[in-house]
Amino acid sequence: MTQRQIEEKINKLKRKIFEIGPLRPGSLSKQYNICGAPGCACKDPEKPKKHGPYFNLSYVHQGKKKTQFIRQNFSKEIERQSKNFKRFKELTQMWITLEIEKSNLIMTTENTRRDAENRKK
Ligand SMILES: [Zn+2]
């Protein structure tokens, strides 16, 4: 790729990143529980009706691992936010890859030009 092509790709990525909606890191897990209450439906030997679902969001932020309970009414929205975060991370990784490529290309081009100039002298 030429520097121009790389820059065009970077600009496209930046636009895509800018369009990403609300985001937050984490993965949501769904659980069903059995309680300790005697005779509760969750312990029914035939058709146990477990409690839940309960949603837990686990994530790492600034080096700290956290787990947070999420109410069911927000589970869809939190799922959406964590999908957006994954996309954000993917796009920024692609951006970084292109920036490295561009930086190397600029240095190589500059050095080749200088070497050619020095040979003329
Ligand atoms: Zn129960």
Task: List key phrases describing it.
121 residues, alpha+beta, binds zinc ion
Short description:
With 121 residues, this protein is an alpha+beta fold.
**What is the averaged pLDDT score?**
96
Low confidence ranges: none
Number of helices: 2
Which hetero compounds are present in the coordinates? Answer: zinc ion
Q: What spatial order of strands do you see in the largest sheet? A: 1-2-3
Helix content: 40-55%
**What is the β-strand count?**
3
Which outline best applies?
Answer: rod-shaped
Tell me the β content: 15-25%
Provide the succession of SSEs: HEEEH
Described by strand count, sense and barrel closure, the largest sheet is: 3 strands, antiparallel
- Based on helices, strands and strand pairing, what is the structural class? alpha+beta
Question: What Rg, in angstroms, do the CA atoms define?
Answer: 26 Å
Number of domains: 1
Separation of termini?
31 Å
Structure characterization notes:
This protein has 121 residues and is an alpha+beta fold. The chain has one domain. 55% of the residues lie in helices and 21% in strands. The chain is built from 2 helices and 3 strands. It has a 3-stranded antiparallel sheet with strand order 1-2-3, covered by helices on one side. The protein starts with a helix and ends with a helix. The structure holds zinc ion. The site of zinc ion has 5 residues, from loops.
